[in-house]
Amino acid sequence: MTDRNDDLFAAARAVTPGGVNSPVRAYGSVGGIPRFLASAAGARVTDAAGVEYVDLVASWGPALLGHAHPEVVAAVQEAAARGLSFGAPTEGEVELAALIVDRVRFGDARPVERVRLVSTGTEATMTAIRLARGATGRDLLVKFSGHYHGHSDGLLAEAGSGVATLALPGSAGVPAPVAAQTLVIGYNDPDALAAVFAEHGDRIAAVIVEASAANMGVVAPLPGFNRLIAETAHAHGALMILDEVLTGFRVHPAGFWGLQAQSGEEYLPDIVTFGKVVGGGMPLAALGGRAEVMELLAPLGPVYQAGTLSGNPLSVAAGLATLRLATPDVYEKIDAASERLSRALDAALSDAGVTHAVAKAGNLFNASFRASAPRDYAEAQAQESFRYAPFFHSMREQGVALPPSVFEAWFLTAAHGDEELELIERALPAAAAAAARAQA
Ligand SMILES: Cc1ncc(COP(=O)(O)O)c(C=O)c1O
User: Which residues are catalytic?
Assistant: First the structure.
């Protein structure tokens, strides 16, 4: 029997490559027909056939407060009534930049003194890299395998979830000379970091790193690893770009950096990138950093970057409303829900006899089908990932929407209450049993 989702997917494939506008949405690794979403409110989403799910995707991160939070929606509606886009500076942009500067601090440490607003995380990291190259006069970039920083040319090598889900090594269409500017090393590997700097140190502009890896499943940095990156880069005159597109304002008011600083690991990245939560569900991202680095951007400096829709008033309104509502109790609630759900997931898989490990980084978590939590991309890939599809579909049939890839974090929102958590907990045992029965 087909439903509206099947019809829409068929229609979509006739006009859009693969029927989707971002590859992981296509259900490639879990199989089946993607659910076309018609609406969302709080912790729940409703598909085109009218079926409701408790949502653990949260738009891949942005919906920190839950979907369609009334105050965020009202802020966007008010902004829309004043005009959709001006191509001129607005007061809201100043407020949002000031709020970001103010939030990302720990004691006297303040990595973000200036902020530039852009529209997507891809743009933020792309600009951060150009800025680092402009600041250092060097070309080479170090990234970690399995880390995703968006889809710009130099950043697709061994880039985690999207390409991993599709079993692609990288992307076609990236010129070899561009790819050659990116040196990919293993994550959480101090020796690899030392070796790449020993060999190329005077030509490296920057190291870019996810503040905590979460695009190959959740893989937290080993204690001291982020600090080591900062120290090593700085010792060689290179910059550290901390990518907080996914973690920023989601795991802590000051991002994963803030969470680490609070627990005693203090380091100073030179450029920090934000996305997702900072736009509250609208297209908005940002990069920030030390004034002397950021002021190399045009119009003050020689590093060019621009955008017709940069700092769009609707996006700024959504971002401002979201960050203002993201008070400490929001994080406490999400942290508690994450603790509860990650334990329930662990218990359900254990009870079903499924080899697994639940990994956490702040309130982000997911399970991998291997005996220990992966520490790098090679380990993340060495798991019985065939168990995820039946697990995913069982949860879906029971009314829970999980990310359609084993290489993604599960995202909670402040709108997930007891009722939603209980529904998820009740669904887990059958899903774990389905995973246990799966055949490679
Ligand atoms: C860590 C990280 N950086 C960058 C990006 C790219 O952001 P966008 O999809 O907004 O281009 C993502 C997206 O998932 C991300 O997780």
Answer: 148, 243, 276
413 burial via Cβ count (<10 Å: 0-12, 13-18, 19+): buried
Pocket test for ligand 1, best of 123, 126, 276 (most atoms within 8 A of CB): 276
Flag whether pLDDT at 159 surpasses 90.
no
CATH architecture of the domain covering 37-64+333-437: Alpha-Beta Complex (3.90)
Copy the structure tokens of residue 27.
């259900």
Task: For residue 178, name the pLDDT band (cuts at 50, 70, 90).
Answer: confident
Q: Whose CA is nearest to atom 8 of ligand 1?
A: 121
H or E element in which residue 95 lies: helix 91-103
According to the model, what pLDDT value does residue 219 have? Answer: 98
- pLDDT for 169 equals 52
Non-local CB neighbours of 20 within 8 Å, separated by 6+ positions? 12, 26, 34
**Residue-range domain boundaries for the chain:** 37-64+333-437, 70-325
Dihedrals phi, psi of 35, to nearest 5 degrees: -80, 125
Given a cut of 70, whether residue 187 has pLDDT beyond it is: yes
Contact at 8 Å (CB) between 144 and 312? no
Distance (Å) from CA 440 to ligand 1 centroid: 31
pLDDT in tens, 221-273: 999 999 999 999 999 999 999 999 999 999 999 999 999 999 999 999 999 99
State yes or no: cis peptide before 299, omega within 30 of 0.
yes
pLDDT score recorded for residue 381: 96
Q: Whose CA is nearest to atom 3 of ligand 1?
A: 149
- Residue 170 in 3-state DSSP? coil
Segment 334-340 long-range contacts (CB within 8 Å, at least 24 positions apart): 334/64, 334/363, 334/412, 334/413, 334/414, 334/416, 335/362, 335/363, 337/363, 337/412, 337/416, 337/421, 338/362, 338/363, 338/364, 338/365, 338/412, 340/421
The pLDDT score that the predictor gives to residue 7 is: 96
Q: 313-325 and 70-82 are packed helices; what angle lies between their axes, rounded to 10 degrees?
A: 150
Q: Whose CA is nearest to atom 4 of ligand 1?
A: 149
* Cβ(270) – ligand 1 distance below 6 Å: no
The class of domain 70-325 in CATH terms is alpha beta
